Amino acid sequence: MLRDHAEEAARVLCAARGGAPVHELPTSCQPQCDADAYLIQDAVIHQLGETVGGWKVGAAAAATAAFCAPIYKGIIRPSPASYSASELRIIGIEAEIAFRLGRDLPPRDAAYDRAEVTAGASLHPVIEVVDSRYADFRSLDRPSILADNFSNGGLVYGAAGGVARDPISALVDFANLMNGRGGAKADTLVTTGSWTGMVFTKRGARIVADFGPLGRVEVAFPIDD
Length: 225
Fold this sequence. Notes:
Helices cover 23% and strands 27% of the residues. The chain is of the alpha/beta class.
C-alpha cells in the first residue's frame, strides 16, 4: 500500500471518531493485508496526535497469524474506571489477561524468546472495551478491522495478579510483531485476547470481571456524562 493511500484511509477513520461511522473504507485505500493495516494504524496515530499506551494482540485461530493493534494512552484506565457516553458509540466487553512489560524490547534481527519477554513483566486482569468506527465491523474483513485498531475503544486494568494458565505465547508473538514496528517500551500494557468472548452492554451498566486469584477489574458506563 502506498503511504498516500494509508493517509487517506486514516483521514476517513479519524473523521468517523467524531462523526458518523463508515460502512467501509474507500476502495482505493482498503488494506489488503496486515502490513497495509499497520500503515493505516500508524497514520491514524499521527493524524490524531495520540500517544500509544498499550497494545492488543491476538489471532482468530491457532492456525492464523497473530496481529497487534495500538491502544491509546488516554483510554487506558485503572479499575474501577468509567467511560462517558461521548467516548463510545457501541459498548463491547471482553475479559482478558494483560501483561505490563518489565523491560524495553527494542527492534532487532533475532526473534525474542519467552524468557526475554517475561523478564520483570507483571500480569493484570483487564476488561477490553470494544468500539468501532465502522457501522458494522463484523461484516468486514480482517485487514479493514485491523486498520481500525481491531475495534478497540478502551482498556481497564486491575492490580497485578498470579498466573492460572499460560497466555504467554501471545505475549511472545507481540514482541516479535513489534520487532518490525519500532520495538516496545517497558511499562507498556499488552492484552492477550478474550477469555470470555465478546458481549455487548449498554449505558447504565457496571461490569466486573473476577479472575479469582488473578484479581478483579471493574468498569462502568454512566448514562449521563
